[in-house]
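for the recovery benchmark. tokens below, seq after
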């Protein structure tokens, strides 16, 4: 059995929900306090034992490459001034086996994954979406990517991460139709459905941005017709794969942070900041004072 060594991080989206900030800045570089969102994804991959990472980028994404590259002037300046703590933070983002490829046209997640065919070769691999951050306030939690890798060691099959969402929100996700109850959180799957209407959804178990896939997915993606949004949908390809080899779903029971919309991004920033040693105490005092002020204003209405 081949080990899971490689990860794909799609990062070619235009980030339109965060305009005007993302007009010239990659959405993946928006910081949660002081760390870009994509760095959380890379750290999860490394913590899970991933050895090589391919980032699929697009136009105006050069800042991602620069972030993970060495900056001699900055490093020299920090070293000269004895700012070793800051130098350590900078060093943590270099020396990682990162590779980059461009998706020339935004044709959907399935097409972005297809760009990695040569990189992956004939090996199982993981796909990690940057809009979903997992357990970032719990350093002791087993990374979701590692959970999928552990499942693969037992089943030798593709495994997709899912999580219950409110039924009225299923149209924003890919959703699974499970075959009966899961065993220790692992489900056999009948079908995968991309963005169903709530009344048509087979369950409320939504795909949440971590996939472990076998390389046979690439042949399917190469011949797949566009689906929802006239894009090549990864969920559609996974559903086809499930017809020829078993695909499982792993229910995630940790804390998922959706940084793909403004409110989710703000909530993530607050929760993470409340754990950050440099700002947590001041932020806590501010939130308490702000809550009291808002309560007074509300009582006057």
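predicted aa per position
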């Amino acid at each position: 059995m081949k080990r899971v060594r490689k990860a794909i991080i799609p990062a070619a989206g235009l980030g339109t929900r965060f305009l005007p900030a993302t007009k010239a800045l990659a959405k993946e570089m928006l910081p949660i306090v002081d760390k870009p969102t994509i760095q959380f994804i890379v750290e999860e991959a490394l913590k899970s034992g991933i050895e090589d990472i391919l980032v699929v980028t697009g136009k105006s994404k050069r800042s991602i490459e620069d972030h993970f590259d060495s900056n001699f002037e900055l490093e020299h300046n920090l070293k000269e001034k004895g700012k070793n703590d800051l130098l350590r933070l900078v060093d943590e983002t270099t020396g990682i086996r990162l590779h980059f490829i461009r998706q020339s046209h935004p044709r959907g997640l399935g097409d972005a994954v297809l760009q990695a065919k040569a990189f992956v070769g004939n090996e199982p691999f993981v796909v990690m979406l940057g809009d979903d951050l997992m357990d970032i306030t719990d350093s002791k939690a087993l990374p979701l990517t590692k959970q999928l890798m552990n499942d693969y060691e037992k089943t030798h099959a593709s495994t997709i991460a899912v999580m219950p969402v409110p039924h009225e929100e299923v149209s924003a996700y890919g959703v699974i139709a499970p075959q009966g109850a899961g065993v220790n959180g692992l489900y056999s799957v009948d079908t995968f459905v991309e963005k169903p209407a709530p009344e048509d959804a087979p369950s409320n178990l939504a795909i949440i941005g971590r996939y472990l896939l076998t390389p046979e997915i690439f042949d399917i993606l190469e011949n797949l017709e566009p689906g929802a949004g006239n894009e090549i949908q990864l969920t559609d390809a996974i559903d086809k794969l499930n017809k020829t080899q078993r695909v499982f779903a792993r229910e995630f029971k940790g804390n998922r942070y959706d940084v793909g919309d403004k409110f989710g991004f703000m909530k993530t920033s607050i929760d993470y900041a409340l754990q950050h040693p440099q700002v947590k105490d001041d932020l806590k005092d501010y939130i308490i004072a702000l809550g009291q002020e808002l309560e007074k204003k509300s009582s006057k209405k």
